[in-house]
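HOLO CASE FILE
Compound: S-adenosylmethionine
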Amino acid sequence: MKSNKGTGSKINREFHFSENDFNFIRKLVYKVSGIHLSDVKQDMVYSRLARRLRVLKFKRFEEYCQYLDDNHEAEITHAINAITTNLTHFFREEHHFDLLKGTILPDLSRTQPRGKRLRIWSAGCSTGEEPYSIAISMLDALPNHSQWDAKILATDLDSNVIEKCQSGIYDVKRIDPIEDKNARRWFKPLADKPNQVIIDQELKKHITFKQLNLMEHWPINGPFDVIFCRNVIIYFDKPTQQKLFNRFYELLAPGGYLFLGHSEQLGEFQKNFTLLGKTSFKKS
Ligand SMILES: C[S@@+](CC[C@H](N)C(=O)[O-])C[C@H]1O[C@@H](n2cnc3c(N)ncnc32)[C@H](O)[C@@H]1O
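Model generated. C-alpha coordinates follow.
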Protein backbone atom coordinates (compact mmCIF):
# COMPACT_ATOMS: atom_id res chain seq x y z
CA MET A 1 0.00 0.00 0.00
CA LYS A 2 2.81 2.44 0.80
CA SER A 3 5.59 3.38 -1.60
CA ASN A 4 9.19 3.02 -0.50
CA LYS A 5 10.18 6.40 -1.82
CA GLY A 6 11.70 8.59 0.89
CA THR A 7 10.38 12.15 1.35
CA GLY A 8 13.50 13.69 -0.15
CA SER A 9 14.69 15.41 3.00
CA LYS A 10 18.38 16.07 3.44
CA ILE A 11 18.42 15.19 7.12
CA ASN A 12 19.96 11.87 8.04
CA ARG A 13 17.09 9.76 9.29
CA GLU A 14 17.06 6.96 11.80
CA PHE A 15 13.71 5.65 10.47
CA HIS A 16 12.50 5.20 6.91
CA PHE A 17 9.81 7.82 6.21
CA SER A 18 8.06 7.68 2.84
CA GLU A 19 5.78 10.10 1.02
CA ASN A 20 2.91 7.69 1.71
CA ASP A 21 3.70 7.68 5.43
CA PHE A 22 3.62 11.47 5.47
CA ASN A 23 0.34 11.55 3.54
CA PHE A 24 -1.24 9.01 5.88
CA ILE A 25 -0.22 11.05 8.94
CA ARG A 26 -1.32 14.37 7.50
CA LYS A 27 -4.75 12.95 6.59
CA LEU A 28 -5.19 11.55 10.09
CA VAL A 29 -4.05 14.80 11.74
CA TYR A 30 -6.45 16.82 9.58
CA LYS A 31 -9.36 14.48 10.31
CA VAL A 32 -8.80 14.54 14.07
CA SER A 33 -7.63 18.11 14.71
CA GLY A 34 -8.33 20.24 11.63
CA ILE A 35 -4.57 20.98 11.51
CA HIS A 36 -3.45 21.29 7.88
CA LEU A 37 0.11 20.07 7.30
CA SER A 38 1.56 21.40 4.05
CA ASP A 39 4.38 19.62 2.15
CA VAL A 40 7.03 21.72 3.91
CA LYS A 41 6.07 20.16 7.25
CA GLN A 42 7.59 16.75 6.43
CA ASP A 43 10.77 17.22 8.48
CA MET A 44 8.73 18.59 11.37
CA VAL A 45 6.39 15.58 11.32
CA TYR A 46 9.38 13.23 11.19
CA SER A 47 11.22 14.84 14.08
CA ARG A 48 8.14 15.15 16.30
CA LEU A 49 7.05 11.53 15.80
CA ALA A 50 10.44 9.74 15.71
CA ARG A 51 10.38 9.64 19.53
CA ARG A 52 7.12 7.67 19.40
CA LEU A 53 8.73 5.07 17.12
CA ARG A 54 11.57 4.70 19.63
CA VAL A 55 9.11 4.25 22.50
CA LEU A 56 7.13 1.64 20.55
CA LYS A 57 10.31 0.04 19.15
CA PHE A 58 9.24 0.31 15.51
CA LYS A 59 11.86 0.27 12.77
CA ARG A 60 9.97 2.19 10.05
CA PHE A 61 7.20 4.78 9.86
CA GLU A 62 5.20 2.28 7.81
CA GLU A 63 4.80 0.13 10.94
CA TYR A 64 3.83 3.16 12.99
CA CYS A 65 1.21 4.24 10.41
CA GLN A 66 -0.21 0.72 10.41
CA TYR A 67 -0.44 0.89 14.21
CA LEU A 68 -2.34 4.19 14.00
CA ASP A 69 -4.53 2.76 11.24
CA ASP A 70 -5.45 -0.14 13.56
CA ASN A 71 -7.13 2.49 15.72
CA HIS A 72 -4.89 2.46 18.77
CA GLU A 73 -6.64 5.46 20.28
CA ALA A 74 -4.07 6.23 22.97
CA GLU A 75 -1.38 6.39 20.29
CA ILE A 76 -3.50 8.68 18.11
CA THR A 77 -3.65 11.03 21.13
CA HIS A 78 0.17 10.81 21.55
CA ALA A 79 0.65 11.54 17.84
CA ILE A 80 -1.69 14.57 17.87
CA ASN A 81 -0.09 15.89 21.08
CA ALA A 82 3.32 15.61 19.40
CA ILE A 83 2.15 17.42 16.25
CA THR A 84 0.53 20.44 17.94
CA THR A 85 2.67 23.57 18.25
CA ASN A 86 2.35 24.95 21.78
CA LEU A 87 4.47 28.08 21.59
CA THR A 88 3.12 30.73 23.98
CA HIS A 89 4.16 33.11 26.74
CA PHE A 90 2.70 35.32 29.44
CA PHE A 91 1.14 38.55 28.09
CA ARG A 92 1.88 37.51 24.49
CA GLU A 93 0.62 40.29 22.20
CA GLU A 94 0.36 42.61 25.16
CA HIS A 95 -1.88 45.13 23.34
CA HIS A 96 -4.78 42.64 23.73
CA PHE A 97 -4.38 42.65 27.50
CA ASP A 98 -4.12 46.45 27.54
CA LEU A 99 -7.43 46.62 25.67
CA LEU A 100 -9.02 44.01 27.93
CA LYS A 101 -7.92 45.66 31.15
CA GLY A 102 -8.09 49.31 30.09
CA THR A 103 -11.29 49.39 28.02
CA ILE A 104 -13.31 46.18 27.71
CA LEU A 105 -13.54 45.11 31.35
CA PRO A 106 -14.17 48.64 32.72
CA ASP A 107 -16.95 49.03 30.09
CA LEU A 108 -18.44 45.65 30.95
CA SER A 109 -18.30 46.39 34.67
CA ARG A 110 -20.39 49.52 34.07
CA THR A 111 -22.84 48.18 31.52
CA GLN A 112 -22.96 44.40 31.97
CA PRO A 113 -26.58 43.49 31.20
CA ARG A 114 -26.15 40.06 32.80
CA GLY A 115 -25.37 41.50 36.24
CA LYS A 116 -22.00 40.80 37.82
CA ARG A 117 -21.40 37.78 35.59
CA LEU A 118 -18.36 37.59 33.35
CA ARG A 119 -17.35 34.70 31.07
CA ILE A 120 -14.11 34.55 29.08
CA TRP A 121 -12.91 31.64 26.94
CA SER A 122 -9.28 30.98 26.05
CA ALA A 123 -9.70 28.52 23.15
CA GLY A 124 -6.38 26.85 22.34
CA CYS A 125 -4.82 27.91 25.64
CA SER A 126 -1.63 25.81 25.30
CA THR A 127 0.35 25.57 28.56
CA GLY A 128 -1.78 28.19 30.36
CA GLU A 129 0.13 31.44 30.02
CA GLU A 130 -2.76 33.00 28.07
CA PRO A 131 -5.60 32.20 30.53
CA TYR A 132 -3.41 33.15 33.52
CA SER A 133 -2.59 36.48 31.81
CA ILE A 134 -6.33 37.00 31.27
CA ALA A 135 -7.02 36.22 34.93
CA ILE A 136 -4.34 38.67 36.12
CA SER A 137 -5.79 41.41 33.86
CA MET A 138 -9.31 40.59 35.01
CA LEU A 139 -8.51 40.87 38.72
CA ASP A 140 -6.60 44.11 38.09
CA ALA A 141 -9.56 45.59 36.20
CA LEU A 142 -12.24 44.51 38.69
CA PRO A 143 -11.09 45.75 42.10
CA ASN A 144 -14.30 44.42 43.69
CA HIS A 145 -13.91 41.07 41.92
CA SER A 146 -15.03 39.06 44.94
CA GLN A 147 -18.55 40.38 44.22
CA TRP A 148 -18.35 39.09 40.66
CA ASP A 149 -19.14 35.69 39.22
CA ALA A 150 -16.10 35.93 36.94
CA LYS A 151 -14.89 32.76 35.24
CA ILE A 152 -12.44 31.82 32.55
CA LEU A 153 -12.70 28.62 30.54
CA ALA A 154 -9.35 27.45 29.16
CA THR A 155 -9.34 24.61 26.63
CA ASP A 156 -6.91 22.86 24.35
CA LEU A 157 -6.85 19.75 22.19
CA ASP A 158 -3.49 18.64 23.59
CA SER A 159 -4.00 16.70 26.83
CA ASN A 160 -0.36 17.23 27.91
CA VAL A 161 -0.67 21.01 27.93
CA ILE A 162 -3.89 20.85 29.96
CA GLU A 163 -1.98 18.91 32.65
CA LYS A 164 0.68 21.61 32.63
CA CYS A 165 -1.99 24.34 32.98
CA GLN A 166 -3.50 22.54 35.93
CA SER A 167 -0.17 22.19 37.71
CA GLY A 168 0.23 26.00 37.59
CA ILE A 169 4.01 25.50 37.80
CA TYR A 170 6.40 27.45 35.54
CA ASP A 171 10.12 28.07 35.26
CA VAL A 172 10.83 31.36 36.99
CA LYS A 173 12.27 32.85 33.75
CA ARG A 174 8.88 32.50 32.04
CA ILE A 175 7.27 35.06 34.35
CA ASP A 176 9.66 37.83 33.19
CA PRO A 177 6.98 39.53 31.02
CA ILE A 178 4.72 39.96 34.07
CA GLU A 179 4.72 43.29 35.92
CA ASP A 180 6.69 42.96 39.20
CA LYS A 181 3.68 43.78 41.37
CA ASN A 182 1.64 40.96 39.79
CA ALA A 183 4.54 38.52 39.65
CA ARG A 184 5.04 38.94 43.41
CA ARG A 185 1.33 38.80 44.12
CA TRP A 186 0.38 35.71 42.10
CA PHE A 187 3.52 33.52 41.92
CA LYS A 188 5.28 31.84 44.83
CA PRO A 189 8.63 30.02 44.64
CA LEU A 190 8.37 26.24 44.96
CA ALA A 191 9.95 25.19 48.24
CA ASP A 192 12.15 22.39 46.87
CA LYS A 193 12.71 23.82 43.35
CA PRO A 194 14.15 27.36 43.45
CA ASN A 195 13.93 27.75 39.64
CA GLN A 196 10.21 27.18 39.58
CA VAL A 197 7.18 29.14 40.73
CA ILE A 198 3.57 28.13 41.38
CA ILE A 199 0.41 30.13 40.75
CA ASP A 200 -1.60 31.31 43.73
CA GLN A 201 -4.86 29.43 44.26
CA GLU A 202 -6.77 32.76 44.49
CA LEU A 203 -5.95 33.38 40.82
CA LYS A 204 -6.29 29.78 39.68
CA LYS A 205 -9.76 29.35 41.14
CA HIS A 206 -11.20 31.62 38.43
CA ILE A 207 -10.10 29.26 35.65
CA THR A 208 -11.51 25.89 34.56
CA PHE A 209 -9.13 23.88 32.36
CA LYS A 210 -10.55 21.30 29.97
CA GLN A 211 -9.33 19.20 27.08
CA LEU A 212 -11.50 20.17 24.09
CA ASN A 213 -11.14 19.66 20.37
CA LEU A 214 -12.40 22.70 18.47
CA MET A 215 -13.38 20.37 15.58
CA GLU A 216 -15.87 18.47 17.71
CA HIS A 217 -19.05 19.19 19.67
CA TRP A 218 -18.54 21.81 22.42
CA PRO A 219 -20.34 20.98 25.66
CA ILE A 220 -20.40 24.72 26.45
CA ASN A 221 -23.38 27.01 26.99
CA GLY A 222 -22.03 30.56 26.88
CA PRO A 223 -22.71 33.29 26.25
CA PHE A 224 -19.12 34.54 26.47
CA ASP A 225 -18.26 38.19 26.92
CA VAL A 226 -14.81 37.64 25.43
CA ILE A 227 -13.23 34.83 23.39
CA PHE A 228 -9.48 34.55 22.87
CA CYS A 229 -8.55 32.20 20.03
CA ARG A 230 -5.05 33.32 19.18
CA ASN A 231 -2.43 31.60 17.07
CA VAL A 232 -4.65 28.54 16.67
CA ILE A 233 -6.62 29.03 13.44
CA ILE A 234 -3.37 29.67 11.60
CA TYR A 235 -3.00 25.87 11.52
CA PHE A 236 -6.43 25.39 9.88
CA ASP A 237 -7.52 25.81 6.28
CA LYS A 238 -9.90 28.63 5.24
CA PRO A 239 -13.18 26.63 5.25
CA THR A 240 -12.37 25.29 8.75
CA GLN A 241 -11.58 28.83 9.94
CA GLN A 242 -14.88 30.22 8.63
CA LYS A 243 -16.88 27.42 10.32
CA LEU A 244 -15.09 28.14 13.57
CA PHE A 245 -15.78 31.90 13.37
CA ASN A 246 -19.45 31.12 12.92
CA ARG A 247 -19.45 28.92 16.03
CA PHE A 248 -17.62 31.58 18.08
CA TYR A 249 -20.10 34.20 16.86
CA GLU A 250 -23.04 32.09 18.06
CA LEU A 251 -21.47 31.71 21.51
CA LEU A 252 -20.56 35.38 21.95
CA ALA A 253 -22.94 37.65 23.87
CA PRO A 254 -24.32 40.60 21.89
CA GLY A 255 -21.47 43.11 21.70
CA GLY A 256 -18.98 40.41 22.81
CA TYR A 257 -15.29 40.54 21.92
CA LEU A 258 -13.05 38.23 19.89
CA PHE A 259 -9.24 38.24 19.84
CA LEU A 260 -7.21 36.49 17.14
CA GLY A 261 -3.44 36.03 16.81
CA HIS A 262 -1.17 38.60 15.14
CA SER A 263 -1.18 36.95 11.69
CA GLU A 264 -4.80 35.81 11.68
CA GLN A 265 -7.78 37.39 9.92
CA LEU A 266 -11.55 36.99 9.95
CA GLY A 267 -11.74 37.20 6.16
CA GLU A 268 -15.28 37.63 4.88
CA PHE A 269 -16.63 36.96 8.38
CA GLN A 270 -15.39 40.39 9.45
CA LYS A 271 -18.68 41.93 8.24
CA ASN A 272 -20.24 40.60 11.47
CA PHE A 273 -17.76 42.45 13.69
CA THR A 274 -16.41 45.93 14.28
CA LEU A 275 -12.62 46.19 14.25
CA LEU A 276 -11.47 47.58 17.63
CA GLY A 277 -7.72 47.39 17.24
CA LYS A 278 -5.11 45.01 15.84
CA THR A 279 -6.82 41.56 15.60
CA SER A 280 -9.41 42.66 18.19
CA PHE A 281 -13.08 42.56 17.21
CA LYS A 282 -16.49 43.42 18.69
CA LYS A 283 -19.60 41.51 17.65
CA SER A 284 -21.93 43.89 15.76
C1 LIG B 1 0.57 28.19 19.24
S1 LIG B 1 -0.51 27.66 20.50
C2 LIG B 1 -1.32 29.17 20.92
C3 LIG B 1 -1.42 29.38 22.40
C4 LIG B 1 -2.02 30.70 22.84
N1 LIG B 1 -3.37 30.84 22.36
C5 LIG B 1 -1.17 31.85 22.39
O1 LIG B 1 -1.53 32.59 21.46
O2 LIG B 1 -0.08 32.05 22.95
C6 LIG B 1 -1.75 26.79 19.55
C7 LIG B 1 -2.58 25.83 20.40
O3 LIG B 1 -3.73 25.42 19.64
C8 LIG B 1 -4.03 24.09 20.01
N2 LIG B 1 -4.89 23.45 18.98
C9 LIG B 1 -4.55 23.07 17.72
N3 LIG B 1 -5.59 22.46 17.13
C10 LIG B 1 -6.61 22.47 18.01
C11 LIG B 1 -7.94 21.97 17.99
N4 LIG B 1 -8.44 21.33 16.93
N5 LIG B 1 -8.71 22.14 19.10
C12 LIG B 1 -8.21 22.78 20.19
N6 LIG B 1 -6.96 23.26 20.28
C13 LIG B 1 -6.17 23.11 19.21
C14 LIG B 1 -2.65 23.44 20.12
O4 LIG B 1 -2.69 22.26 20.89
C15 LIG B 1 -1.82 24.55 20.75
O5 LIG B 1 -1.69 24.41 22.15
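CASE NOTES: The radius of gyration is 21 Å. The CA atoms of residues 117 and 235 lie 33 Å apart.
CLOSED: yes
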